[in-house]
Amino acid sequence: MNIDLLRQLLDSLHEDIDDTLTWNALADWGEDNGQWAAGKRDTPYLKARLLKEACKIAAPTADGRELIGWVEFHWEYAEPGYSSKNGLIATGRWNDISHDEGVFPNHKRIVDDAYPSILCILLNDLGVDIEWADEWSCCSECGRLVRTSPTDWHWTPSYEVGDGELLCLDCAPQANPEQIEHMADELGEGD
């Protein structure tokens, strides 16, 4: 299967999805997140999910199938300054699976599996925002994305971590100055 065949698959999804395939494609996301897209057969999410499964099946290596399996879909950013083009964001590792052949300086990079990057291209063609999974995490409360990797020297986190949860600033409980002063006194750090 090549990238043109996958693009044809994307184009044909509008009418030809049966209810069983629709159910399987949505089951892992819909109920867990309190949202459901049943009956919306031409939603970007459904097309993206089916493209992910098609690339996973077509990938010739176990490593490629594993990387594609780690791709996750999200709906909104909690990060200030970011907004989604169409309400769908994919996070993943988009690298090809490759190896070096020969000895430096005469070695060649051989691509064993290009399907992770092919999926990235197809999702981008669909209008999905593409992000690297090691730079973003979900808020444990609302599920929106926050950047966890700095963009520059002036970057500051827009999340808090505590009790094993990562919370965006909208969901994080705001400590009032009296609580902070009381905690400092208990730790012996007060005036």
Short description:
This protein is of the alpha+beta class and about 190 residues long. The protein is built from six helices and nine strands.
Count of separate DSSP helical elements: 6
How would you classify the helix and strand content by structural class? alpha+beta
Main β-sheet description? 3 strands, mixed
pLDDT < 50 stretches: 14-41
- For the record, give the distance between the C-alpha atoms at the N and C termini, rounded to a whole number: 69 Å
Number of DSSP-assigned strands: 9
Strand content: 15-25%
Q: Largest beta sheet: what is the strand line-up?
A: 1-2-5
Any idea what the shape is? globular
Number of spatially distinct domains: 1
Mean pLDDT comes to 78
Nearest-angstrom radius of gyration?
21 Å
Binned, the helix content reads 25-40%
Give the helices and strands as they follow along the chain.
HHHHEEEEHEEEEEH
